[in-house]
Amino acid sequence: MEGLTLSEAEQRYYCDLFAYCDTESTKKVASNGRVLELFRAAQLPNDVVMQIMELCGATRLGYFGRSQFYIALKLVAVAQSGLPLRVESLNTVKDLPLPRFVVSKNEQESRHTALYSSDADNPASYSGVIPPPPGRIQVKKGSVSHDAVQQRTSTDQQESTSPVVSPQQSPPTSPHTWRKHSRHPSGGNNERPLAGPGPFWAPFSEAQPGSSTSSDPIWSGHSPPPHQENWVSFADTPPTSALLAMHPASVQDQTTVRTVASATTTNEIRRQSSSYDDPWKITDEQRQYYVNQFKTIQPDLNGFIPGSAAKEFFTKSKLPILELSHIWELSDFDKDGALTLDEFCAAFHLVVARKNGYDLPEKLPESLMPKLIDLEDSTVGEQTGEVGYSSSPAEAPPSKSPSMPSLNQTWPELNQSSEQWETFSERSSSSQTLTQFDSNIAPADPDTAIVHPVPIRMTPSKIHMQEMELKRTGSDHTNPTSPLLVKPPDLPEENKMSSSVKYTPGNTVTDGYSSSDSYTSDPEQIGSSVTRQRSHSGTSPDNTAPPPPPPRPHPSHSRSSSLDMNRSFSVTPGQQQAGVVAYPPAVPPRPQPSQGAGPHVHRPVDAEGLIAHTSTSPQQIPEQPNFADFSQFEVFAASAVNKEEEDEIETHSEVLQVEKPSDSASSLRVAKADGRVEEKSSANVPSSAGKGTTPLAPPPKPIRRRLKSEDELRPEAEEHTQKTGVIAAVLASQPSIPRSVGKDKKAIQASIRRNKETNTVLARLNSELQQQLKDVLEERISLEVQLEQLRPFSHL
Amino acid sequence: MAVCVAVIAKENYPLYIRSVPTENELKFHYTVHTSLDVVDEKISAMGKALVDQRELYLGLLYPTEDYKVYGYVTNSKVKFVMVVDSSNTALRDNEIRSMFRKLHNSYTDIMCNPFYNPGDRIHSRAFDNMVNSMMMQVC
User: Fold this and answer.
1) CA B71 to mean position of chain CA atoms
2) Which residue has the higher pLDDT, A707 or A26?
3) A257: CB partners within 8 A, 6+ apart
4) Is residue B51 part of a domain?
5) What integer is the mean pLDDT of B62-83?
6) A with B: how many residue pairs have Cβ under 8 Å apart?
7) What is the band of B94 on the pLDDT scale with cuts at 50, 70, 90?
8) Are residues A516 and A510 in contact, defined by beta-carbon separation less than 8 angstroms?
9) Are A325 and B126 inside 8 Å of each other by CB?
10) Which of A335, A437, A440 to substitute to test the interface with B, most B CBs within 10 Å?
């Protein structure tokens, strides 16, 4: 282990590395952190690293002394060359290449390596790397130094070998370049640059022969990488410029580079700190390069490059036209077909980035916006942050001068104003859409159509009858009506649906109703009447409440049978009041097998039965007592009204379980029946509604009908039969089931089955009728309100 | 919001056509093609006057049951055709005009691009974004 002999190059290299690791300037011990980083950069397996450390004695000592460090480096070289790690190999292996450290942090080392190797192999070629156009080189070196500084300052460890090089040529990893350099020292001059990250410019350089251009490509090739660390890779190519600030005492040729480096170091650091996270930032060197290129096309820095010239220039980059077109779109900020210096630099930067494999952004990065790039102003970074607004193209700055801080500040204002203007326009359009949307809503919603009376055909007479019935019941209506009032929107729609389905024949009934016109014309009054009903129930007497479901009495009116039923229901006012709740329950039992014949009789009987069961809750529907009603109905069936009532009863029998709304509806119907003996039409409506709502409804109706002239009922019943024809058909299919208990279970079961079928049908019908009833009741309420309004006048 | 936007060259071949993807695109292509006749008709009707005096915005070319077709022609006889959904009653004439104006501006921006050869299909991303902004927002 001792007695390590190092070549001169190795000696220097190791010395530099040690100095690098010697962060504490102890000159004796290399900091473990740095050493470890170095070893990591060597890209050796961990076990190898551990082995090296053990071999060099650092583990034993606990620190890396100079000798240990040198030994470790030598071992790294041995390992990298593939030789087994042996203590003996330290001195035995000849011509061992210098250890290569790949990580960006070790770029310096790699550069050192390259540097030293180049020195060792061919100082001439080494110097040859630097030479080409001195001016450019200086700039290049500056960039390299910039990289070095960045490497030092940046905490990111990046693969320096991940050069953002276009895949066209070999990646300019330091080892590669170094190798190339060492192998072809003489040819390294040109090769290295070409091998650098900027290979794509090789063809470009063909147009501009000379190493000057070759150096430029390399440099530009490295420029783009979004991360500053990528500059490192660029720095690889000119290995000569590796050391830079590291060792001022390095090769003589580096002095120029170093001076440049030192000069730009502070700038770079400052710039870097200000724009650390900006991947698209153009460095000074890049900027300078771009400017120089700009000058070749347009000597006047304040002038424009016409589109054609720019097209030719960028076409040389061999990028696809589509991408070039996109780059142009991004970079031509003012869309004038010409490039200013800033725009040109941005375009160039994007081209370089694309060449190196970076995807083009959708929007121009803020750092590339024309106004943000400032050559001389080192504080551009701050301005970048200030002015770097969204890339939405704003008005072109009044002047295209590259360095106009004042303009830069006006840009954001322009941006903001334009954006605000755009947003305003959008808002206005959206508001327009909003208003239009509202206008669309209004007519579409029938419930609100009360404001705009919908010319729905209605049967006012029915409504009036309903109102009268409602009034008769007085406060009792409130209960039943309130639920209706609560659900005004549903009823009209439901009524519409049901009416459209089944109650077409009911249209004929509407003819008999006179006040239809008045009704249609006074939807608001109806609404007010409804509201008045609400007031009856204790709610606010405000008549401005939106009129509930627009007068939709048509469907409800079409159910003349409902009116009949209502009339029939309103046998006894008092009972009806109580029966309001009980009606629904009474209906369900109707479809019972024994009710095969019962339905016919139901109606006359139901009234009484319902009355008797008014107090019963809906849950009592299936109770036996209801059956008793049917027997009563059977008695009534004998009445002349049977013929008319049959249909209604059938419909009622079809109605099964009654829900609350149906209960209320039926109750309303009953109430109506009480008050409206003379209003058959209105009875029809509730009757039809009652059909769908409550089975109890039918019972009172027959009774009511008997109260009224049967003649009136008959025509209505006929119409009603038409509507209920469908229902009747269902019932007709069901044979009356003998009530004899003595029948076999089969008969009973069969009857049960049939009854269930009828139940379902009736349930459906019931729901529909309930809806219609609700509508009718509401209309009735509104009409009642109207009547009340008119009443005072009558008194006067 | 348009359901289809098309840019037709002077020689009446499409430079750019984009439809709402859910619809049958071929139907819109056909619609745009047939609308060209109406455009030519309108152009020739005003042909007597100088081209400069001609209104660029042609207005509603023809309505169909499901949609309406609007037209716009530039002074270089480049036509913009826009198909909007008839059910979208919120669209007013002013809005259509503004949409055409945006189209025209974007088209001129494309023209300024030296890498764009007039007569080529339009592949500009910026143009696509602009058209996307005015297309129907289909979920």
Assistant:
1) 6
2) A26
3) A130, A137, A138, A141, A142, A144, A145, A240, A241, A244
4) yes
5) 88
6) 50
7) confident
8) yes
9) no
10) A335
Name the residue range of residue B93's domain: 1-132
CA-wise closest residue to A365 among A282, A271, A272: A282
Lowest mean pLDDT among A734-738, A750-754, B106-110, B115-119: A734-738
| Distance (Å) of CA A774 to CA A463, A601, A647, A692, B42 | 12, 26, 21, 10, 58
Determine, yes or no, domain membership for B29: yes
Assigned domain for B137 exists: no
Cβ atoms of residues B7 and B102 within 8 Å: no
Pair A213, A228: CB distance under 8 Å:
no
Contact A307 B113 (CB under 8 A): yes
Nearest chain A residue to B113 by CA distance is A337
Residue A698: name the closest of A747, A752, A655, A748 by CA.
A655
In a domain? residue B86? yes
User: Which residues 76-95 of B are in CB contact (within 8 Å) with A?
Assistant: 89-90, 92, 95
Domains of chain A: 8-104 (1.10.238.10), 284-368 (1.10.238.10)
Cβ neighbour number for residue A137 with a 10 Å cutoff? 25
Instruction: Note the pLDDT of residue A770.
Output: 93
How distant, in Å, are the alpha carbons of A146, A262, A273 from that of A266? 9, 7, 10
Give the pLDDT band (50/70/90) at residue A257: very low
Give A220 to chain B, closest Cα distance, Å.
22
Query: How much is the pTM?
Result: 0.33
Residues of chain B positioned with their CB less than 8 A from the CB of A324 = 115
Comparing A357 with A549, the larger pLDDT belongs to: A357
Put simply, the chain B residues between 95 and 114 with a CB less than 8 A from any chain A CB are 95, 98, 108-110, 112-114
Taking a C-beta distance cutoff of 8 angstroms, is the pair A327, A350 a contact?
Answer: yes
Instruction: Report CA A336 to chain centroid distance, whole Å.
Output: 36
Helices A475-486 and A523-536, interaxial angle, to 10°?
120
How far out from the chain centre does Cα A439 lie?
A: 27
Nearest CA to A566 out of A424, A727, A678, A725 is that of A678
The whole-number pLDDT of residue A18 equals 76
> By the CB < 8 Å criterion, does B50 face chain A?
no
Compute the residue count for chain B: 139
Chain A residue with minimal CA distance to B102? A422
Contact criterion met (CB < 8 Å) for A307 and B125: no
How many helices (H) and strands (E) would you count in chain A?
Answer: 38, 4
Single-letter amino acid, residue A171:
P
Domain total for chain B? 1
Which among A93, A98, A90 is positioned nearest to A2, based on CA atoms?
A: A90
- pLDDT tens for B100-122 read 888 999 998 888 888 888 888 88
Question: d(Cα A657, Cα A760) in Å, to the nearest integer?
Answer: 9
In degrees, rounded to 5, the angle at the alpha carbon of residue B63 between the alpha carbons of residues B57 and B65 is 155
Residue B1 belongs to a domain with what CATH number? 3.30.450.70
Average pLDDT over residues A270-278: 46
Q: Considering only CA atoms, which of A673, A700, A666 is closest in space to residue A773?
A: A666
Pick from B112, B123, B129: which is nearest to A332 by CB? B112
A198, A357 Cβ separation under 8 angstroms: no
A436 vs B124: CB contact, 8 Å cut-off? no
Contacts of B25 (CB under 8 A, 6+ apart): B19
Distance from A320 to chain B by nearest Cα, in Å? 10
> Inter-chain contact A311–B126, Cβ cutoff 8 Å?
no
Asked if residues A457 and A516 have their Cβ atoms less than 8 Å apart, the reply is: yes
Q: What are phi and psi of B81, to 5 degrees?
A: -120, 135
